[in-house]
Specification:
The chain is an alpha+beta fold. The protein has 4 helices and 12 strands, in the order H-E-E-E-E-E-E-H-E-E-E-E-H-E-E-H. It has 2 domains: 1-83, Cysteine Rich Protein (Ribbon), CATH 2.10.110; 85-143, Ribbon (Cysteine Rich Protein). A 3-stranded antiparallel β-sheet has the order 1-5-6. The chain has a 3-stranded antiparallel β-sheet with strand order 2-3-4, with no helix packed on it. A 3-stranded antiparallel β-sheet has the order 8-7-12. One of its GO terms (molecular function) is DNA-binding transcription factor activity, RNA polymerase II-specific.
């Protein structure tokens, strides 16, 4: 599913309003009756203001939230769980995370490392591609620390270093 459609179908405005005529209807979050003067309307259901929280980090959700399977998420936790995954660690990448994007892969900065010495590969640094998700820094390549024969590896210079949102919304 494209990220535009993820946003479109899963982002919700949190509406504030007076309770429906059925005062005491159950809260969608805790299932207790809503007896407050005001309620929050999310996913077309009434909620106590204190129950509208991210199901991952438990932070209150003020104006916008994301949902999947009737669970509410803040923006960062939603994208960590359902967004692009890091090719190095397999964890989700939040829109605010800085990433490296070699070829068609995306890596957290800390995951874009030499597979031999674990040194983080920097912008402009030469690296050698072992396979889609493994790279060798120039120093380890020259010292012959990688697999043999290493003559078939491709040398590239890494130049991309941007925020993830660049890849979600162009």
């Amino acid at each position: 599913m494209a990220f535009g459609s993820v946003l479109q179908h899963n982002q919700h405005n949190i509406g504030r309003g007076e309770p429906p005529s059925g005062l005491g209807d159950p809260c969608a979050g805790c299932n207790k009756p809503i007896l407050d003067k005001f309620l929050l309307n999310v996913l077309e259901r009434g909620w106590h203001a204190t129950c509208v929280r991210c199901c991952e980090c438990h932070q209150p959700l003020a104006d916008k939230c994301f949902s999947r399977e009737s669970k509410l998420y803040c923006r960062n936790d939603f994208f960590r769980r359902y967004g692009t995954k890091c090719s190095g660690c397999g964890q989700g990448i939040a829109p605010s995370d800085l990433v490296r994007k070699p070829r068609d892969k995306v890596f957290h900065l800390n995951c874009f490392t030499c597979c031999i010495c674990r040194k983080q590969i920097s912008t402009g640094e030469q690296l050698y591609v072992l396979d889609d998700n493994k790279f060798i820094c120039k120093d380890d390549y020259i010292l012959g620390k990688g697999p043999h024969p290493m003559t078939d590896l491709n040398c590239v210079t890494f130049v991309r270093h941007r925020k993830m949102k660049t890849y979600f919304w162009r």
